[in-house]
Fold Peptidase S8/S53 domain-containing protein.
Amino acid sequence: MDFVAPGIARVDTPRFMDSNNKVILGTSFSTPNAAGAVACLLSALKKNSIQYSPASLKMALAQTAFLPENGNKCEFGNGIIQIDAAFEYCKNQMIDLKKIVPRKNGAGGITFIKDKGHNVNMKRIVDLRTYIDMIVGKKSFKKWTLKIQVEDQNIICVTKIDKNGSFLLNVDTNKVEIGSLKYSEIEVIDPAIGCICYIPVTVIVPLKPSLNPHECCNQKEIILNYENPCHIFIDPPQKSEKKYEIKITPLETDMMTSLFIQHSFNKKKRVIIVKGSSEIVEVFQNKTYFLKYEIEETFQAKPKNIHEICIYQRKGSPANQKFLLQFNFFEMEESNKELLFN
């Protein structure tokens, strides 16, 4: 995502894809506002005889965008566009259009998934030519540096860019909460013009429930807000005859709320979103809810076929609702998916 203008982007259904990452493009209801503001910027640049290009405009908007406090890149991109600041940036920086290095279309990002066979520290050699047109930037890439967001530096670290335009990326999966996804970005910085490229990095440490229902790894506590769905990643059991259940226990709620549960899994480099969703209405503190599912053979085809669960609220539900989720695996006779209330 590049910008919101102003607003927030919300994805409430699973969008995870393992080996075949895709870029999801879209617009928001605030797009006309952004288009009008950029039109004003173009008029000001023309009136002042300031040269520009689509790449330079995007860079100016990115460098001057405002990221709200506690806002994250998944929701705001670079932030809320600031047209006055973007104009001053174009006016004072005197951007050399020849130095702007284009990002390759469809470059995607980097995904780490911790499997049973992987160590806590996962490494990968990253070639910048995958993300940037190095033919244009080959004369200056030796001056480029890499930057990791401060809050992610204890999880992700990188080496300097070598003479071939590559660097080593190291991820400490032990610092990522089990069952969750950690998203970050590597900024490629040219000292003359600033950040020229963002490389998305996604780290997934799936929950690996034990067949023993009393194991602590079988449970996860979550806090739900409508605008922030909860995504949980689970390694399915290895044997085809196993089934699993999700036990949902409200912890601090004394108000009615509605929950929706959707599932997705990988199949031959495609993400399959299970049709339909389970809806739990009127969740109260004195009730416990069980969702029981049959694990299809597809889920165990390969150990890397991670099962993603997305839990989100109905619009207008009370905020900061806390729940305890327990995942239990067991054997039972074949049946269709069912929703049970206790």
About this structure: The CA atoms of residues 124 and 142 lie 20 Å apart. The chain has three domains: 1-100, 101-205, 216-341.
